[in-house]
Write a structure and sequence with these properties.
It contains ten helices and no strands. Helix 3 crosses helix 8 and helix 6 packs across helix 9. The chain is globular, with a radius of gyration of 17 Å. The relative contact order is 0.12. By secondary structure, the protein is mainly α. The N terminus and C terminus are likely disordered. It starts with 21 loop residues before the first helix and ends with a helix.
Length: 196
């Protein structure tokens, strides 16, 4: 099979065989399971992530015949499905972020490889940043976290969420502006890197 184990952001991950062949889907699962799981875990916590990831791949498998590689990479398509499912659990995500704001970081966070792969995650956010992210509009939060947690480009986000490219930029700018305002003008990315 010609599947990359860990596709690079922006790298085309067009399958070598049509997805309507069930065997081709095994490669998709192997190539993308870990990163989709990491993304869902960072947004909802490990327990809820299991269900979201399972449902993400189930939906993708059921809709594999309608996947159009000209419209989206497999990676962006999967992140879109996962983000929509997370959106259905947005109350859990907000509760998780608010709990992090009250209680701080969980001392049992994943190992070094996860820390390097994730610049900002719900499990590694400082309490003030977690509280600020929880207050964002769901649509703005989705865009911000697809950049921060998944490393998707604006193009990939537009495709994943089915929104215009310009809307991605607007939502991202609005989210960043609100976060800076909530944090007293501090750049949350710089502060997290300095203290993390």
């Amino acid at each position: 099979m010609s599947w990359a184990a860990h596709p690079v952001a922006g790298e085309a991950d067009v399958p070598s065989r049509p997805l309507d062949q069930a065997e081709a889907f095994e490669g998709i699962f192997d190539a993308h399971f870990a990163e989709i799981h990491r993304y869902a875990s960072q947004r909802l916590g490990t327990d809820s992530a299991e269900d979201v990831v399972a449902e993400t791949f189930l939906i993708a498998f059921r809709k594999r015949a309608s996947y159009d590689p000209a419209r989206a990479t497999v990676r962006a398509w999967l992140y879109g499905i996962a983000t929509n499912l997370i959106g259905k659990q947005r109350r859990l995500e907000v509760r998780t972020l608010r709990a992090l704001a009250r209680h701080g970081v969980d001392p049992d966070v994943p190992g070094h490889e996860d820390h390097v792969a994730v610049r900002v995650s719900a499990q590694s956010l400082r309490p003030s940043l977690a509280a600020a992210v929880a207050e964002l509009d769901r649509r703005d939060r989705d865009v911000l976290l697809l950049v921060a947690l998944a490393g998707l480009s604006n193009d990939e986000i537009a495709t994943a969420l089915g929104i215009p490219y310009g809307t991605v930029g607007s939502r991202l700018n609005r989210a960043r502006r609100k976060l800076r305002g909530s944090l007293g003008g501090v750049n949350p990315m710089r502060e997290t890197a300095d203290h993390g």
